[in-house]
Amino acid sequence: DYIAWVDRYKLPEEEDKKRRTEIAAVIERTNEWIAKVPQTFKAVDVVMNDGLQKMAEATAGKPFQIGVFVDKKSGYTLAKPGIIDVNVKATGRENNKAKLGVHAKDQRFRIEATGKAYFEESNVPEDECDLLNINLKLNAEGCKQRDVISFTVIVSEMKDGMEIDRRGVSTVIHIV
């Protein structure tokens, strides 16, 4: 229960309200997608798991600026099968830097899909930047109309070469 976690954090009123509002919006939007998009149980799972990721992200808050965009849209978007451009932008707080992080050991991105989809990782930049602005390639050539893809990109906030914070941003794509 993500709202219970927000309760435990005992945040300042404005931040508390912001996180609760974001969690409620994720629930509403995810339910809309579950009602309209999936055609299979697997697709329902992908969209539902994406919603859970988004609620966890809302619960954790966003202490530094980060955005993940597909066709200039974030969170919930549409794309055609093929190579999908994913733009990641971030900046650290107070002169800190940002860099693309790792979701789990040996796994840079969390990805779940009803079709075959993966990030092309051969040219992924490893540098720390004042303003991270990178373009990733999501290969969805193995997907067809009505497939769904959910992925999470992790960005690390860096200070003096050390990771001091990290956040994920999840995106769900309906293949049209």
Describe this structure in words.
There is one protein chain. With 176 residues, the protein is of the alpha+beta class. The protein has a single domain, classed as Immunoglobulins (Immunoglobulin-like), CATH 2.60.40.10. Helices cover 30% and strands 39% of the residues. Strands 2, 4, 5, 8 and 9 form a five-stranded mixed sheet that branches. α1 (2-9) runs antiparallel to α2.
Keywords, separated by commas or semicolons:
176 residues, single chain, alpha+beta, four-stranded antiparallel sheet, Immunoglobulin-like, five-stranded mixed sheet
What is the radius of gyration?
16 Å
Q: So what's the oligomer here?
A: single chain
Shape: globular
Q: Overall pLDDT, averaged?
A: 97
Number of strands: 9
Q: Using the coordinates shown, work out and report the CATH topology.
A: Immunoglobulin-like
The share of residues in helices is 25-40%
Write the layout of secondary structure elements.
Elements: H1 2-9, H2 13-36, H3 41-60, E1 65-69, E2 76-79, E3 82-91, E4 97-100, E5 110-113, E6 116-120, E7 132-142, E8 148-159, E9 162-175
Helix pairs in contact: 1-2, 1-3, 2-3
